[in-house]
Design brief:
Number of helices: 3
Strand content: under 5%
Shape: elongated
Helix content: 55-70%
Distance between the termini: 44 Å
Number of strands: 0
Largest sheet: none
Radius of gyration: 23 Å
Order of helices and strands: HHH
Length: 93
């Protein structure tokens, strides 16, 4: 059997500290706060287009707005993925 382990210091540049990771993440978030909030806010806007049931009125046909629901769900998936990509790009920029 062969031992294929690597030396401990080969890929590390220093000690890993969770506090440093949180500090850096907070720094990036606070520097780009407005951009990140706007991008995620725009991505969540299609949920406002989703048809809502009227309180007190029983639904007659549950598939009445099926086309609108499918469209809104696809739009939410696309915009959600795009907003995640923008936020990730903003972090590594």
């Amino acid at each position: 059997m062969t031992d294929a382990s690597l030396p401990a210091g080969r890929f590390t540049q220093g000690e890993f500290r969770v506090g440093h990771v949180f500090s850096r993440a907070w720094s990036v978030f606070s520097q780009n706060f407005l951009t990140f909030i706007l991008v995620t806010g725009i991505a969540s806007l299609p949920s406002l287009l989703m048809p809502q049931p009227t309180p007190g009125v029983p639904p007659v046909n549950p598939f009445q707005n099926l086309g609108m629901v499918v469209f809104v769900m696809l739009l939410m998936i696309v915009l959600g993925t795009l907003s995640q990509a923008i936020v990730l790009y903003g972090h590594f920029r």
